[in-house]
Amino acid sequence: MSIDLDPGTLWGIMSQPREEFPVSSLAGQMFQPTNPELRALYPDGVYIDLRGFPDWIPYARAVVEMPPPPPGLAVDEVRVTDVLAANELLLLAADPLAERRGPVPHTPEGWVWAHLAGSRRLALVPSSLHDSFRHGGGVATLEVNRHRTGLELPTGSADEYVPLVPLQEVSEAAVHKVEEHLNVRLPGSYRGFVMATNGGFPRHPGVHPEHGFIVDQPFFGIARNSWFEELSFVNMWVSDRFTHDFLAVGPVQGGMIAVKVHGDDSGSVWYWDDDDRNDAERYDAEYICGHLLHRCGDDFEDFWASLRLVPEPLLGVVRSAVDNGHAQLVDDPDAGASLPPAEQP
Fold first, then answer.
1. InterPro entries recorded for this chain (predicted)?
2. I need a labelling partner for 107 at 20 to 30 A (CA). Which of 23, 60, 66, 199 fits?
3. Tens of pLDDT along 139-160?
């Protein structure tokens, strides 16, 4: 798929040497996941283009074209509004996976919106494949205000907490078995969350005032319907970003949430950005955990209490982009070609 780049965007990409981006050493080659279950599901692998970025189009159930970022929005706000607008378009297109549980639609469960490098396009791809390796993308290459981070919340929004929907309760014995498998004692607040909800999800999409992710998926749990929702299974293939001091506990639109399980500050909650322009292929998990994770809670209860409903000014940006036709679904003939038949659009 060809992508037209304006000079500013092209300069933004080329100003960082190609070898700096994760997996850029595979430029022009196919990346094959190390996980055998993923290789069986997606045998074609992921093509890493000549710039060193994954080509997600063959795994895209849908592709959305967004307009240039509105003036005044910072990078985290652009990231949030892009995803929300994409979900609105998916719902308007009557995609069977699209779901609205309230005023703001969720991303389909098990999927993630990937920003495509050097463009304003997003592709809806399986989160299990997308999250299985580190890579750069369209947030890392986006020319946007980066001097300010986080989301500006209007007065009064501090009380708009995000309700939690539990999936089911989990027994002490089941949690203990997982702890033995992981060789770790789950910190108290997070342990209580797992026992009470088995990886619950927000009734309405939630955002964090200091970061650009959206919480709209169930967290990992125990004895779930898919291996890729299993707490113990997922943590077998995230060692490229997390040391044994951290446990990946759930996906978000924009990365993963992890809990520190060893050492000082045990129980604290951290955000890993999956499209971080500061990440580089030469970095290992030790460096990432020491320099690129973002602390977002003293414990899991504190983390959840810090989440807020999407602020109205950002919803206004989303409505404007969708209602005025500035954000649109794109008909790409190659979209979804490598998806299993059941996942194809």
1. Knr4/Smi1-like_dom, Knr4/Smi1-like_sf, WHH_dom_containing
2. 23
3. 999 999 898 999 988 766 656 7
Average pLDDT for residues 233-253, to the nearest whole number? 97
Instruction: State the pLDDT at residue 145.
Output: 86
Domains located in the chain, CATH noted = 26-148+311-330 (no CATH), 164-309 (3.40.1580.10)
Report the number of secondary-structure helices (H) and strands (E) in the chain: 10, 15
Q: What residues contact residue 263 under an 8 Å CB cut-off, 6+ apart?
A: 245
**CA 78: distance to chain centroid?**
14
How high is the mean pLDDT of the chain?
Answer: 93
Cβ burial, residue 345 (10 Å; 0-12/13-18/19+): middle
Could you give the CA distance from residue 40 to residue 299 in angstroms, rounded to a whole number?
37
Which residues lie across from 122 on neighbouring strands? 64, 115
